[in-house]
């Protein structure tokens, strides 16, 4: 026992995505801390700590399992709060897929800004630092008064495209105007053409025609977005691209939430592949959907944890994906 | 008719919301409260709350296909939505406060203590010579004991040495028993490596695989303070609840908390519906509830008895009942068990069994909160309890359907309606505490 024994990385895994935690732990060459989360029969969540976190650098990995967002969130809050009462030196919440990221503005009267509420809750529970991947809106970082490291899946996507396609054949397509920035960034890095699909909204809540801006003829059209939930937009966009003469259409999406009938929608679509990262637990969806490909994001997260722990810059990861 | 007030109901107890609204003479606020397919809560408040006094009713109960944590998040989101919607004041009304009681007995699905003989894993990696895993570079092993007692000899007195392991439930908020000094060290610091204070009714095998680090005493996080802080952080200006298991939870809040009592209701039930109640005996099923039970016994001038749970480590074979002792006399008497909350129903059914054995003629159990999770209903059905009386602080329709005439439900909506009215008008609510 020496002084440098203390303040090591303690990786605590929530129940939502143990596979990701295991991969991160393996990458870091450590073991996941001995803790266990359970639900009592009255449905209250209980968190048992089986090893000391006193004066350690605690990283709590909790994603959001589709359908069980609130369970995962409460569990995360309880874990953070438990580590704080157990005198952890620093508590970093690693939330690959930030919950409620889409409820980030008051878009109608008395609509809750749930993303801000979640941010406040995490700070109230005692999080000192947040690590996340591809926030739906980077402004969510402003909801926090603690540092937020927003990692990007973009370097992983760039590598995937370079490895699987010849870049001259590709067109990067944004399925809506909001994602144009994300898509142009990829197009710029690859030096490929870019196109955009414009959604006409004649009335609120009515999706009108989709108009393609740009040329995709005889090209491989790559749709880029940050999350695929019910996949309705993606599939419609893919159909528009096919109509406009695209050779094939695939989609690169960071968070594969894939709720509702997403898998059936995908299977019946013209998309040749949907590539997602493993920020969200996919369960049996890979088996149910032959079009689904998964990029492992754990090296990026593990490296961010290592760098955060050692006080090194994380910005390297914004342009490079560790192998 | 009360003006400028908005009552907003969560999904956990629509019947209570409706009857509170009826009492106040106003309709419940229109809202959409569902889930997106991704699992995130969707909340839209459709009536204006600007400048209003908003009361949000959500009880800490999950069941009938809904989840407790969903309800709690819904509550926080509703509070936050009202706050951003310029409500003048937001009051969270939680008839049953979630996470207010963390079980202090190791128990599993069946309610009985989950026990795994600690003989192999309790001793495998750990000897009494081991240094605790808590960082203590160069610190002598016994230095942490404030009273200077020899830890080895004290530990040797526990039944750990005969391989049964310690079963003592210790409510622990800090795992560092070694350095806590005032903790009863003999109370199984290491023996509980192989037993659990938790139960996982969904995935028991998951629990079986869990083991704390050798030498580290595992502990269960207590979420009470967190829940209080989260409500305040969401924007609650005031909290109304009923019969908090620990009155200290009130102190976790920085905002006013009104803890209402279900006692007047229970008393009225005893006076009107229990024949010859003057000859009955009020029983507290554990020492923690003694104060609650004596308060009723004293004010009604009837006798009182207490069941004492022996917490000394005993042999596993006779632990189930031998550890319970009755203090007082119940032979040929009607017994009225009083408790604040029944979850798995373990405490009250075991108490009832003991009372029957001691010669009680009839056993009533009066509780404020009847959660009845797990297989509580079946246990109560099979128990010696003749009549179970609960309030509707959580929905009781399903329990009523299963238990039939054995269960009586008391309506708390008048108490909450009156509390809301008084809080809104700035009148004292202390009258609700004493009103008999």
Automatic annotation (TrEMBL), chain A:
Lineage: superkingdom: Eukaryota
GO cellular component, one term: cytoplasm
MF annotations from Gene Ontology: ATP binding; kinase activity; magnesium ion binding; ribose phosphate diphosphokinase activity
Classification via InterPro entries: PRib_PP_synth_CS, Pribosyltran_N, PRTase-like, PRTase_dom, Rib-P_diPkinase
E.C. designation(s): 2.7.6.1
Catalysed reaction equations from the record: D-ribose 5-phosphate + ATP = 5-phospho-alpha-D-ribose 1-diphosphate + AMP + H(+)
Pfam families reported in the protein's UniProt record: Pribosyl_synth, Pribosyltran_N
Pathway listed: Metabolic intermediate biosynthesis; 5-phospho-alpha-D-ribose 1-diphosphate biosynthesis; 5-phospho-alpha-D-ribose 1-diphosphate from D-ribose 5-phosphate (route I): step 1/1
Cofactor list: Mg(2+)
SUPFAM superfamilies reported for this sequence: PRTase-like
TM ranges: none
Any one GO biological process: purine nucleotide biosynthetic process
Matches recorded under PROSITE patterns: PRPP_SYNTHASE (PS00114)
Residue span, Ribose-phosphate pyrophosphokinase N-terminal domain: 9-126
Keywords tagged on the record: ATP-binding, Kinase, Magnesium, Metal-binding, Nucleotide biosynthesis, Nucleotide-binding, Transferase
Family membership noted in the UniProt record: Belongs to the ribose-phosphate pyrophosphokinase family.
PANTHER family: RIBOSE-PHOSPHATE DIPHOSPHOKINASE FAMILY MEMBER, RIBOSE-PHOSPHATE PYROPHOSPHOKINASE 2
Protein name (database record): ribose-phosphate diphosphokinase
Automatic annotation (TrEMBL), chain B:
Residue span, Ribose-phosphate pyrophosphokinase N-terminal domain: 6-103
NCBIfam families: ribP_PPkin
Record-level GO BP terms: 5-phosphoribose 1-diphosphate biosynthetic process; purine nucleotide biosynthetic process; ribonucleoside monophosphate biosynthetic process
GO molecular function annotations of the record: ATP binding; kinase activity; magnesium ion binding; ribose phosphate diphosphokinase activity
Family, similarity comment: Belongs to the ribose-phosphate pyrophosphokinase family.
Pfam families: Pribosyl_synth (PF14572), Pribosyltran_N (PF13793)
E.C. no: 2.7.6.1
Classification via InterPro entries: PRib_PP_synth_CS, Pribosyltran_N, PRTase-like, PRTase_dom, Rib-P_diPkinase
UniProt keywords, alphabetically: ATP-binding, Kinase, Magnesium, Metal-binding, Nucleotide biosynthesis, Nucleotide-binding, Transferase
Keyword Metal-binding (UniProt): yes
Lineage: Eukaryota, Fungi, Dikarya, Ascomycota, Pezizomycotina
Residues spanning the membrane: none
Superkingdom, natural source: Eukaryota
Protein name: ribose-phosphate diphosphokinase
Enzyme class, spelled out: transferase
Reaction equations catalysed: D-ribose 5-phosphate + ATP = 5-phospho-alpha-D-ribose 1-diphosphate + AMP + H(+)
Record's GO cellular component terms: cytoplasm; ribose phosphate diphosphokinase complex
